[in-house]
Structure formats: structure tokens, C-alpha cells
Amino acid sequence: MIVTSSPSQLAKDWAKGYTSQPNEYAYQIKDIEGQIPPDLQGTLFRNGPGLFEVGGESIGHVFDADGMLRVFRFQEGKIYFQNRYIRTEGYLKEQKANKILYRGFGTQRSGGWLANIFNTNLKNAANTNVVYWGGKLWAMWEGGFPHQLDPETLETIGIDDLEGLLNQETFSAHPRIIDHSFINFGVSGMSPQTLTIWELNKQRETIKSSSCPLDGFSLFHDFLVTPNYYIFIKHPFKLNPLPFLLGIKSLEQCLTFDDQNTAKIIIISRDSQQMEILETEAFFGFHHGNAWELNNKIYLTTICSDTFPQRENDKMELDKMSFEQPIFGQLWQITLDLSSKAVTREPLLERSCDFPSVHPAFVGQENRYLYLSVASQPTNKAPTQAIMKYDQSNGKYQIWSPGERSFAGEPVFVPRQGEVAEDNGYLLSVVYDASRHRSYLVILDAKNLNSPLAKCYLTHHLPQGFHGTWTPQNFLNGVSL
Ligand SMILES: [Fe+2]
User: Where are the membrane-spanning stretches (predicted)?
Assistant: First the structure.
């Protein structure tokens, strides 16, 4: 029988997973259950929120917490952990002042509207993703430029405009890598906006870029790419910027989900940059799984919610979270018929889920397996507490659950060296165990999730994180394990 926590215990445990970790560590992990596969050689870079208060004052939203890297380096069956804050301008100034100086997505400066009026300079928290490409390590945040970091020391080198490529644009935290191209997008303006997409080669040279005007306001967090298309989903939002400009409300509180409108699916040719927009019922979702083309149709998987989880105020108060209303989405498949322009949607999973990923060689190709963080029970009213391997060919799945008081973060798929089979690799996920207030890295065999290959216990907790990536280099120069 699977034991589940009471709703109040679950909310308390979940909130505890967003406790600040002010310390910075660097050590070899010695407390290991199981065995680290010797062929697992490289680095898991992860990013996420680290500090939820400054000078005793709570920030308003986890999206605004300062970014902290969590890095796991593997060498010959040994593992080395390091965490380090990204020294953004906001982090340095707020730590020096010991108070909140910046507004954020859901954070206001204390002092009422007078302390916020006409202040549109949101803190670049550099907290959403971390990617190594073309010799550069970037901490990414979707509202601004990336921060470049030293992959060996994790020291912050500074804001990076990619040799002048970026001007007014943002640089999203969800790049896609396909056929050795690094593809990312940015948005400039408020309403209307301009969407810009760049393709960079391994030398970080721009091999393609395109810009498209967009009507109204869009909140793009993620996108999809296939061999011939970029695909963006414009969920129906309205933005009333006036209360934000006047300092009365946070940016988050000025957003309204418009369920009377439609979701627009924007399909842009990678070749001609021609744009086509198809429509479907209103829905919201932060993350997409994968997209592929077949017989003049595009298939895509995405996380769908009926609405955007809007809060009544700008207080964190995560322990008061009610899971009675779904706050995570469900997995859907959407089919875009490029001939008839028809859009069809089909639910694949009832349970709450997030952070879908595939084998990196299958980005833009028809994939069989999707890896996700999921609710431990088949319900859509729960946080993500388990890791799932979902088989899109038959709807069957495998689940690994760490226990009723633990929370499993994004699974990152690492292919076994030299192998191309879609599930021939490892799944790496950071688990927060509220019963011990500690975190560990779990290594699962993607072929069989039943029993972990290894659990690598940290000596402390890590706040629940967002995204990360794997690179085969371990950047362990001079470190002896
Ligand atoms: Fe994301």
C-alpha cells in the first residue's frame, strides 16, 4: 500500500523545500547508497532559487529568488558537489544593503507604491537554467541577458551580451539543441512585441536569425523546434501594465488569464521565416516536451493547465498552499495539421506533471519515451514527487517514487557513452527529503526505473530547483577525488 501524507503535511513539506540555503559548499560526496556507474563521466549543472529572504524580509515569489548553481561532477565512479550563488548585480547589491532593493515578477519593494512607482528594473535573478555551449557556461533567466560563469570555479564572469548579439532582447532560459545548433529566442517590447530567434553553431557564431512582429502581449517561457519549424504557444494573457508602473501591483498581479480567448500556436519556418498561426482552446503551460514532423503534420507534447495559477497577494506563504486546485499541469499531445490547419488536443496523463525531457538526440524527432517529474498518485491535485518514464507508443509508464515526504526535481537524461538507443542511459534528479531536510542526487537506469543505481546524499538540503543540463566534461582540473 502506498502511504500518502495529509494535505496539510504535504503543503508543509513542500514549503520546507523552498527554505534558503545561504551556505556555499564544495566537497566529495562520500555518503552513497549503491554504486555510481563508472562510465558516467561529466558534469550535471543545475540552477534554481537559493535565497527566499534578504535581511529577514521575504521575497514575493520563488521566481525572484537569487540563482544558485548546484553542480555534480563525476569522475571514475566518484562524485564531487559544489554550489555557488551567481554574483548578479542584484545579488551583490542586496547582500551589501541587507534588504530587498529590486522588484521582481511577484516581488515588490517594501514601502508601498511610493517605493515602487515607475521602477521597472526587475532583478535579473539568473536562476532558471544553466547551459554549457561553445566553451561558455551561462546561467539563464528569461527576462534578460545570461550571466557567464567559469565552469571550473563557478565564479561569475559577468553579464554576457554574446559579443553584441543581444541588444534590447531577452535571452530565454529554454534553448533547444538540435543537429549541433543551439537555438534560442528573445522578446523585446511589451505590447506589441518582437520575437527574435537565433541559431548558433558550436563556435557561437550566428548561423541564422529571424525577427517576427507579434500582436499584443506574449508570455513565452519555452518553445519547440523540428528540422523545419520553430513552434511557439501563445497562451491567452492580458497585461494591464498601469498598476505595475504606478507601483501598486507586482507584474504577476497585472497578468490575467483570458479563458474566453484562444491559445495561438505560432509556426515559423526555419528556412523562409514565414509565419503561420493556428488556434485552439485556451490553456496554459510553462513547459513543452518535444515536437516532430510526420506526413505534413506536426506533433507536440506539452504540459497543459486549464488556467494560470494566479495568487491573491504577493506573499510567498507556500505552507498555506492548497493542492485542492491543480497548480501543476497535465501531459497532452497536440497535433497540427499543416494542410487543413486543424488543431487537435489529446490528454496523455491525468496526473500532475512537469519538466518533460527526451534523449537529446531525439529533439525534433519522433520520440517514444518522455521523462517527467510527476505526482506520486494518479491525481492532478498534487506536487511532483516521483520520476516517470512515459512510453508514447502505448501509454504505459514506469515510476520511481522516493517516498511520501520527498519531492523529485527535473530528470535529466544522460546517454550512455556511444549508445543511441532512446532509453540507453541514466536519469539524474535531485530529490528533497522533507523528513530529514536533506537532499540527494538519485541516479536511475532509464531502461528500468524500479531501483536506483545510486543515491548520493548531500550533508545539507538544496531548495527545490528548476532546470539543468549535462555536459561530458567534468571541469575537475586540479581537484583530486
Ligand atoms: Fe522552465
Answer: none
Q: 1 CA to middle of ligand 1, Å?
A: 33
DSSP per-residue string spanning 23-85: ---EEE---EEE---TT--EEEEE--EEESEETTEEPS-GGGSEEEEEEEEEETTEEEEEEEE
Distance 62 CA to ligand 1 centre (A): 13
Residue numbering of the annotated binding site: 174, 221, 287, 467
Domain extent listing, the chain: 9-471
* Cβ atoms 386, 408 nearer than 8 A: yes
The CA–CA distances, whole Å, from 419 to 361, 387, 416, 422 equal 11, 22, 5, 9
Distance 394 CA to ligand 1 centre (A): 27
What's the pLDDT score for residue 418?
80
* Cα-to-centroid distance, 175 and ligand 1 (Å): 10
- Name the grid cell of 309: 495559477
Residue 1 has pLDDT above 50, yes or no: no
Give the Cβ contact number of residue 367 at 10 Å. 22
Quick: pLDDT tens for 91-113.
Answer: 999 999 999 999 999 999 999 99
Q: Residue 211 Cα, ligand 1 centroid: separation in angstroms?
A: 23
Separation of 288 CA from ligand 1 center, angstroms? Answer: 9
The rounded distance, in Å, linking the Cα atoms of 350 and 393 is: 17
- How remote is the CA of residue 481 from the centroid of ligand 1, in Å? 33
Neighbours of 162 (CB within 10 A): 18
Instruction: For residue 368, give the amino acid letter.
Output: R
**Rounded Cα gap, residues 279 and 264, in angstroms:** 5
**What type of residue sits at position 147?**
H
Encode pLDDT of 380-411 as tens digits.
778 999 999 999 999 999 999 999 999 999 99
d(CA 226, CA 53): 41
CA of 173 to the centre of ligand 1 (A): 7
- Model confidence over 193-203: pLDDT tens digits? 999 999 999 99
Reduced DSSP (H G I as helix, E B as strand, rest coil) percent helix, strand, coil of the chain, to 5: 10, 40, 50
CATH topology classification for 9-471: Methylamine Dehydrogenase; Chain H (2.130.10)
Q: Is 164 helix (H, G, I), strand (E, B) or coil?
A: coil
For residue 262, which phi and psi values (nearest 5 degrees)? -115, 160
Confidence of residue 2 (pLDDT cuts 50, 70, 90): low
**Closest listed residue to residue 291, CA positions, set 222, 351, 394, 350:** 222
pLDDT tens string 203-215:
999 999 999 999 8
- Between CA 267 and CA 406, with CA 286 as vertex, the angle to 5 degrees is 150
Cell readout for 106 is 511577484
